[in-house]
Amino acid sequence: MEDDKPLSESERSSKEHYSHLEEKRKSAYDKIQGVRIVKVTKDNIVKDLIELYKDPSISNSRLLMEIAGQEDAVGNGVLREAYSLFWDNLLANNTMGETEFTIPMAPHFTFEDYVSIGRIITHQFVQCGAFPVRISQASITQALLGDVSPETLISSFLKLLPPREREIIEKGLSDSTAFSQDEIMEILEDYNINTLPTTANLASLITQIGRNEFAQKPYLCLLRIRRGMGPMWDGVSEKDIASIYNLCQPTTQRIIDQIYMVHKDPKDAQIMRWLQRYLKICSDEALVNFLRFCTATDVMRPECCIKVSTEFMPPAAIRPKSRTCFGIIVLPRNYTSFTQLRKNMDFYLRNPNLWDLSD
């Protein structure tokens, strides 16, 4: 669990702005009346949820979600998992990006579909406290405010790129001695930039690309998404929106700060120390999988913690388990080394079909 350590000015500001959104979220949650039971299928979840949210009254109800084939699972973990599956499928099949993604613009989507997507964004946030931060911050800012700063456009563009290309552009923006014109031009050509990039014009070229990709191309789609997101977002600022992305995107330190264990003995302390070591060497993808495994969402929730417990498991069944409704991960007490924990966690976390989840 996070220690009482001094916050930087930017961290303090983000927490203050996020608190403002939390107040709005809780107020909206308190206005929800009634419960609706909804059943969806994994293979058709995008269509299922978009059709469901074409009924505007759905946002006035708390959902009890059932996923076909997982009828024994109940609780908030199932609801979070359904939303996570929705974004997985929507973004993987209809957008481009690496850690942030552009707005889906497939020809089979209607304007009413985008209104539904807006309702899903808000209803997920209200019920689960989870905002889909894989959607580009620049597009969300454009949708809510009607404009977006050059700094946010550049940041979201960088998050479209794979790590190596992101590094090339970042160096080009910050260090004239590391400016690789040929490599930068190769990246920008895919965005119809024919101007030769230089240290003097690179930021403006990327701002131009960002405005086109995040604001102008999806402009009509964003208008419908904003309509669907509803009045809860009235009056938010760019700093409020930034606070979501600053605090809710998973990072190594944020996850380590959220995990805690009540140690019963030295073996518990050893398992906890090995888990922290493991998280420090995880790739970004593995961190997201760990968070999803524990909580059924790949979005950090700043007000929540992940509890670690241990239990003895039969040697042939050593594996991590979780109770996603409560944010609990259960680790084998009979891990004998850090290497065993690392290999075991890697094996199970990389394949969601093997996950042992319960509510």
Automatic annotation (TrEMBL):
Could you tell me which residue ranges the HECT domain spans? 263-347
Q: Which GO terms describe its molecular function?
A: ubiquitin-protein transferase activity
Q: Which InterPro entries match?
A: HECT_dom (IPR000569), Hect_E3_ubiquitin_ligase (IPR035983)
Pfam families, from UniProt? Answer: HECT
Family matches, as SUPFAM superfamilies:
Hect, E3 ligase catalytic domain
Enumerate the UniProt keywords alphabetically.
Ubl conjugation pathway
Q: Which Gene3D superfamilies match?
A: Hect, E3 ligase catalytic domain (3.30.2410.10)
Its recorded name reads: DNA polymerase
Species for this entry: Paramuricea clavata
